[in-house]
């Protein structure tokens, strides 16, 4: 008889198998490496018409200015051959002399700065903001009940605490369940490799493997289906190994309240929001995959015959490291923005985000500083297929202000019932790639009050969702967040090939890839029309989108498959287009 744990694992594997195809767009397709720069009518791929723009609009024009684009991210490989020629270099600083030659407070900041490191090394992992907040509020409210006398501030904090406890419970349960499945898949993959005396098995090896039990038979089904969905067994194998690594880190570090290496590895006065004299000059850090990929999309060298073509041809990439494996901290984000502004960036790409805030006023202050200094901020909308009009997503363009406080006080949400976190699963359980079935999809959606979108906000901000390559009802990338009032535009973010550490190129998808497409477009516009202000560049990009006239499908808050017009999921109702934008910029008044 199957024991209880094995029954549960078998059920989880079954659910995982169903969700593998139910929630994911097929990656069983070969796309041109440069598809995001191609033209829909000419090439059949819903790119942003960059190559058409260079060929027809820019061939007899010379760029007027080198545009510095700051990549605030997890690190950039400054030795990548497709990036070396497009890196920003601080000409006022003498490399390696251990002196702050330009007096900006940062020693040997040649290509940028790392705000999550010190002489002792670099911070690779950190908690989710949710966990950091629970560490603060749990001692205060863990024994509190709904009958405990509380003042208005305490009631607000207690409501937040209960929400966080519920969110943590769901995240931990989902991570544990997914990691259990990944362990099972890895066990089969490793067993088959060992039996066949291979480092990596083949799909034929998997088919020939005799399963020990029903669970392993279901795992074989997952592997076959996953290989088909991902386009090859090799891609599926790589994704599973990467997923195992991600979910392992999620449980060991991101969701572990006992883990906190900030003081030891960064050593700043974390309570001082406006301290800036900390960090080191190692802008690559321990894991530069994400930031290197983002950088290539923006400006990979267009003059060589290597790899890919970035969107912008006259750009300099400034590397600013603030994002660990885990959630970024508001203090570091604020300092990253200020560093970029003070060192000449005209555009800042921010492919990161989180569901909770801690020190938003520090970030707001930095955003306002960038606004005053004429710097455009481009931000990824997130990858949870959530409606950002309803759900919280930080950082964002809306300021914490008196008006926002007044609105919040007048529109308090009813408190949710208490949530009891599930019992932790056995040691070594962790987190994976795409989240499993989201029970919050069963919650009845709250009607949207559009008044809040007119509250004080930044004029120099573009929020970007991710689109796929085909002009059909799957155009919205299935993972992409959306928002009729909060997501400004969509841009290619599905199977985007770009630079990665080790002189390599790989495909990745996410709004993290869509955001640098828009940042690269903004830099391209500014390089030929440098007198434009951030709000003007934003207006040009939004007014020049390729409008999507047909409906697209996605899963709404209730978990239902729905089809809506594109202007119901973003402000502009379209996909950014370089050709249209440059034509509009030429005659912009």
From TrEMBL:
InterPro entries: Peptidase_S8/S53_dom (IPR000209), Peptidase_S8/S53_dom_sf (IPR036852), Peptidase_S8_His-AS (IPR022398), Peptidase_S8_Ser-AS (IPR023828), Peptidase_S8_subtilisin-like (IPR050131), Peptidase_S8_subtilisin-rel (IPR015500), Protease_P7-like_dom (IPR034080). Keywords: Hydrolase, Protease, Serine protease, Signal. Transmembrane segments: none annotated. GO terms for biological process: proteolysis. GO terms for molecular function: serine-type endopeptidase activity. The active site is at residues 73, 290, 512. Residues 1-24 form the signal peptide. Residues 65-548 form the Peptidase S8/S53 domain. It holds the Pfam family Peptidase_S8. Belongs to the peptidase S8 family. PANTHER family: CEREVISIN-RELATED (PTHR43806:SF11), PEPTIDASE S8 (PTHR43806). This is Peptidase S8. It comes from Pedobacter zeae.
């Amino acid at each position: 008889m199957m024991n209880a744990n094995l029954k549960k694992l078998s059920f989880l594997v079954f659910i995982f198998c169903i969700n593998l195809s139910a929630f994911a767009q097929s990656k069983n397709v070969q796309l041109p490496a440069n598809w995001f720069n191609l033209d829909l009518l000419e090439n059949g791929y819903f790119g942003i018409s960059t190559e058409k723009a260079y060929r027809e609009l820019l061939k007899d024009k010379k760029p007027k200015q080198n545009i510095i684009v700051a990549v605030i991210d997890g690190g950039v490989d400054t030795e990548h051959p497709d990036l070396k020629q497009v890196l920003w270099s601080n000409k006022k600083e003498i490399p390696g002399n251990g002196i702050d030659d330009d007096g900006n407070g940062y020693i040997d900041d040649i290509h940028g700065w790392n705000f999550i490191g010190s002489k002792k090394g670099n911070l690779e992992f950190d908690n989710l903001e949710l966990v950091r907040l629970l560490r603060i509020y749990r001692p205060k409210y863990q024994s509190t009940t709904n009958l405990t006398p509380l003042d208005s501030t305490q009631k607000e904090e207690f409501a937040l605490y209960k929400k966080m406890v519920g969110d943590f419970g769901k995240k931990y349960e989902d991570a544990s369940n997914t990691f259990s499945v990944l362990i099972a898949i890895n066990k089969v993959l490793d067993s088959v490799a060992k039996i066949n005396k291979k480092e990596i098995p083949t799909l034929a090896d998997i088919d020939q493997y005799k399963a020990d039990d029903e669970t392993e038979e279901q795992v074989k089904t997952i592997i076959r289906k996953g290989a088909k969905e991902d386009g090859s067994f090799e891609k599926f194998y790589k994704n599973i190994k990467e997923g195992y690594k991600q979910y392992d880190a999620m449980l060991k570090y991101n969701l572990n309240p006992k883990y906190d290496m900030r003081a030891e590895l960064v050593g700043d006065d974390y309570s001082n929001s406006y301290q800036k004299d900390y960090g080191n000059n190692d802008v690559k850090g321990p894991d530069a995959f994400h930031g290197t990929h983002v950088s290539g999309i923006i400006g990979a060298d267009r003059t060589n015959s290597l790899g890919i073509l970035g969107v912008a041809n006259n750009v300099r990439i400034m590397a600013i490291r603030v994002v660990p494996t885990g959630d970024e901290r508001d203090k570091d984000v604020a300092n990253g923005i200020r560093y970029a502004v003070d060192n000449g960036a005209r555009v800042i790409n921010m492919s990161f985000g989180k569901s909770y805030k801690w020190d938003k006023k520090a970030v707001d202050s930095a955003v306002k500083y960038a606004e005053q200094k004429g710097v455009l901020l481009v931000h990824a909308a997130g990858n949870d297929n959530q409606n950002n009009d309803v759900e919280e997503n930080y950082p964002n363009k809306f300021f914490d202000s008196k008006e926002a406080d007044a609105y919040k006080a007048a529109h308090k949400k009813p408190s949710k019932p208490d949530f009891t976190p599930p019992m932790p699963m056995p040691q070594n359980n962790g987190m994976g790639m795409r989240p499993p079935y989201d029970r919050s999809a069963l919650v009845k959606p709250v009607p949207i009050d559009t008044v809040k979108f007119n509250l004080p906000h930044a004029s120099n901000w573009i929020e970007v969702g991710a689109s796929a390559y085909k002009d059909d009802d799957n155009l919205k990338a299935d993972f992409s967040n959306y928002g009729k009032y909060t997501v400004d535009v969509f841009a290619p973010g599905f199977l985007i090939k770009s630079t990665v550490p080790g002189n390599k190129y790989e495909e990745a998808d996410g709004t993290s890839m869509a955001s640098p497409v828009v940042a690269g477009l903004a830099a391209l516009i500014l390089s030929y029309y440098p007198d434009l202000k951030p709000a003007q560049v934003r207006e040009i990009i939004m007014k020049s989108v390729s409008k999507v006239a047909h409906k697209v499908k996605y899963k709404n808050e209730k978990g239902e498959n729905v089809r809506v017009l594109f202007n119901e999921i973003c402000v502009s109702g379209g996909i950014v287009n370089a050709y249209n934008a440059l034509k509009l910029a030429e005659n912009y008044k």
